[in-house]
Structure formats: structure tokens, C-alpha cells
Amino acid sequence: MMGKSWVKLCGAILFLILIAFVLIGCNEEKAQDLEDHMEPVEVDLHVPETGEVNEMITISATVIQGGEQVEDADEVVFEIWPDGKKEENEMIEYEYQENGTYYIETSFSQDGIYHVQVHVTARRMHVMPTKQIMIGTVDTGEANE
């Protein structure tokens, strides 16, 4: 009788040890995944320096983490407003994405300096760089922000 109990006990102990090794291996993989995603998300905002009234302009944002393009951003929204009039902002979601670069095409109906800020949320990080664009004839001393 004691022999069968001993075999069952040894089998149970071996099974628990095997389970422990499997769990340790899974935790190491999760830790590596977390470490890989701890690198900061970087956004390179591409805005032309100038443009003309009513001209279609392409604005893009390239999202990178750890030297690799991020094609699965949770949110990419471009915010545009005239200089000194942030309350007149317009929010535009990206229109298409290719190789980690998110694009919109837009036009401006009046001369002036405009601010373009992209709001990117990717891999639990939020980045929002800003650039300016001058549309039409602009007195460069006009910039307020």
C-alpha cells in the first residue's frame, strides 16, 4: 500500500515542479514584452513650412518605438488652429496609415500662420509634438504662440 501512495506523492511533486517551471517561463516572456514596450514612443511630425490658400497639403506623423515603426497606434488625431486662436481648433483623425506613418490631407481657407499638433497615443504613451505652417502672404512678425 505504501508503495502506491509514495508513487502518487512523487508524481504529484513532479507535476507541481513542472507547473512551476512553466509559470516561470511565462513570466520571463511577459517581463521581456514589458521591457520591449518601455522604450519611449517617438513621433516625427512632417508639416510643410509654407502653403497656399485652398491648396491641398499633406501632413503626416511617423510613429517609432525602439527604432521600429508603430503601425498599431491607439489614436492619431491632428489638431490645427490659427495663430493666437487655439479656441478655433479643428481635430482631424488620420485618413490612412502606411509603414507607421499616419496621414491627413487638408487645406487652409485664409492667409496666416497655423499650428499643427498631432496627438498620438500608442502603447500606453501619449506624445503631442507641434509645428507651424505659413499659408499665403504672412508677415513673419505675426506669430503669437
Key words describing this protein structure:
145 residues, alpha+beta, six-stranded mixed sheet, five-stranded antiparallel sheet
Provide a descriptive summary of the structure in words.
By secondary structure, this protein is α+β, with helices and mostly antiparallel strands. The protein contains 1 helix and 11 strands; from the N terminus they run H-E-E-E-E-E-E-E-E-E-E-E. The strands form 2 sheets. Strands 2, 5, 6, 9, 10 and 11 form a 6-stranded mixed sheet that branches. Strands 1, 3, 4, 7 and 8 form a 5-stranded antiparallel sheet that branches.
Q: What structural class do the secondary elements suggest? A: alpha+beta
Helix-strand topology string: HEEEEEEEEEEE
How large is the share of residues in beta strands? 35-45%
Largest sheet: 6 strands, mixed
Mean pLDDT: 86
Q: What general outline do the C-alpha atoms trace? A: rod-shaped
Supply Rg: 27 Å
Helix percentage range: 10-25%
Intertermini distance:
87 Å
Layout of helices and strands, plus pairs?
Blueprint: H1 2-36, E1 41-46, E2 50-51, E3 57-65, E4 68-69, E5 75-82, E6 90-93, E7 96-98, E8 101-106, E9 112-122, E10 125-127, E11 130-135
Parallel strand pairs: 2-11
Antiparallel strand pairs: 1-3, 3-4, 3-8, 5-6, 5-9, 7-8, 9-10, 9-11
